[in-house]
Specification:
eight-stranded parallel sheet, alpha/beta, 12 helices, two-stranded antiparallel ribbon, about 325 residues
Length: about 325
């Protein structure tokens, strides 16, 4: 395993982050394809054995049961100081006013709820789960600063939004001397490269770590275009990410398959190697043992300029997506 600093911080994280949205009780929340606690725990243990120390979840995943499962497994299989736990706030957790968002009230309530579910007294990385258009950014940023100063959170991060919004938030934090975002969890993969235009250069200039979600395009880059999975058939959000660019996307998938075949490697390793060359630590989901093996093996794959050109060439501009 390779480790790297999270942005400009001194925190060391594995180059692969285990995404834990797939771990949650299927009868809680809207994702029926998630794995129960019994089925989830082996993947968390495998990740630790492979040297992964970075785990990402969110309060909203399976109505909080993802945090519960991850917290118990990490407590059983590791020590708290050995792992980096990341979770998120913003999504709706209950009906009615103040049941979602990034207000001071919501942030203070949700950090305590997440800590209780995770079974820990602090979170290493607390991320805003998208941009909140209904709350002044000053209110959000000051509240995040206070949870850092309280000791409940070590670092704060952001997720998919426009680059100008992120720049505005960074400038506001600097102006007031508040805790600064250290990471950006955005949408980056071979089928969606729009973040290369503004967000990735902004993060590089500001020393912000990039920890993208869906680096394998929900598995589309790992299989033939016409193949599907239980998740892809029921994931309405995922379907919307690829509407309107199917012909070009299929050419990218085919190009990845050709490079993988020539190399004698799984497609996932080729697609992840490309992402790893651009970001800090991609967030990889795993529901089969080989998913994690491929992710770690991708760290040793170095693509040639010709191979990179081949898999990048079919790409066409996409509409901006993934922000909601």
């Amino acid at each position: 395993m390779e480790y790297v600093r999270l942005g400009n911080t001194g925190l060391q994280v594995s180059r692969i982050c285990l995404g834990c949205m797939s771990y949650g009780e299927p009868d809680r929340g809207i994702h029926t394809w998630t794995l129960s606690e019994e089925k989830s725990r082996p993947f968390i243990k495998q990740a630790l054995e492979l040297g992964i120390n970075f785990f990402d979840t969110a309060n909203v995943y399976s109505d909080g049961s993802s945090e519960e499962i991850v917290g118990r497994a990490l407590k059983d299989f590791s020590s708290r100081e050995e792992v980096v736990i990341a979770t998120k706030v913003n999504s709706r957790m209950r009906p009615g006013p103040n049941g979602a968002g990034l207000s001071r009230k919501a942030i203070f309530a949700e950090i305590d709820a997440s800590l209780q579910r995770l079974g820990t007294d602090y979170v290493d990385l607390y991320q805003i789960h998208r941009f909140d258009y209904d709350t002044p950014i000053e209110e959000t940023l000051e509240a995040l600063h206070e949870v850092v100063k309280s000791g409940k959170v070590r670092y704060i991060g952001a997720s998919s939004m426009y680059a100008w919004q992120f720049a505005q938030m960074l400038a506001t934090s600097e102006k007031h001397g508040w805790a600064r975002f250290v990471s950006m969890q955005n949408y980056v993969n071979l089928l969606y490269r729009e973040e290369e235009r503004e967000m990735l250069p902004l993060c590089k200039a500001e020393g912000i770590a990039v920890i993208p979600w869906s680096p394998l395009a929900r598995g589309r880059l790992t299989r033939d275009w016409d193949e599907s999975s239980a998740r892809s058939e029921t994931d309405e959000f995922g379907k919307g990410l690829y509407a309107g660019t199917e012909d070009a996307d299929k050419k990218v998938v085919d190009a990845v398959a050709q490079v993988a075949e020539k190399r004698g490697l799984p497609r996932a390793q080729i697609a992840l190697s490309w992402v790893l060359s651009k970001v800090t630590s991609p967030i990889v989901g795993a529901t089969k043992a080989y998913h994690l093996d491929d992710a770690v093996a991708a760290l040793q794959v170095r693509l040639s300029e010709a191979e990179i050109s081949a898999i990048e060439a079919p790409y066409i501009p996409h509409r901006v997506m993934g922000f909601v």
